[in-house]
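job 3f2a | input accepted
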Amino acid sequence: MTMRKHLAALLALGVTLLCASSASAVFPNFSDCPRANPEVPTCIDIQSTSGSLEIKGFTVPLGESLEIRGGIDLNRAPNPFIPPTGTNGFFSRAIRIPGGILGIEFPIPGNAVLAIAQLAGPVSSIIFNFGIPITTISLPVKVKLENPILGSNCYIGTNSNPARINLTTGTTSPPAPNTPISGSIGEISIAGEPPVLTLTGTRSVDNAFAVPGASGCGLLGIANPLVNLRLRLPSAAGNNTMIVGNNVAVVEG
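job 3f2a | predicted structure (253 res):
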């Protein structure tokens, strides 16, 4: 496969996910790409522009909350990802859970809940599969919930029991009751010096994953049932959907 096709495949990825640091406000952002690493011939920045996570019909908007950036080696399979120094390369802004704990869209003290998606494991747990026109990224995810009542250790999923996401620009094969849905690679453009390849309007999808129940919520986990009831957890595969719209930029390191 030529470098041009490698880059097109990378752009087709169109996936952004997730950690406990802040997502970038600038696109594209190659400022912390680890270019000094000999395994980084290419820098990448993928930022979400829209999207949602649906759990048994309960929808959480994702918006511009997600980003992945760093370096990648397209000449090896699987394609190793090298994060910026001091990070795991996955960045997330907090998003608001609609209705909070009580399911009421009203400013009641203690009701608001923020969610921060995190990588549930080391960088090596991320698996890239590049192809044209279909590209996927597989990785384990957990979500931290922030609320005074829930405490500081409230999570959906854990490192040992995460949600395993397989986002694709192709077509999914979910168990019932979900039915197949499709992603798309968007539109590619090349500009600048050195040339930056940009993909806009990428759509990455997965509706075949399970979502674990809550843990660590409230004193001794006393609020776990409340979170599970509110978010309809745990939720078996075939009942959940993640759709992410992205802008992607790639440049040779």
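job 3f2a | The two ends are 19 Å apart (CA to CA).
job 3f2a | closed
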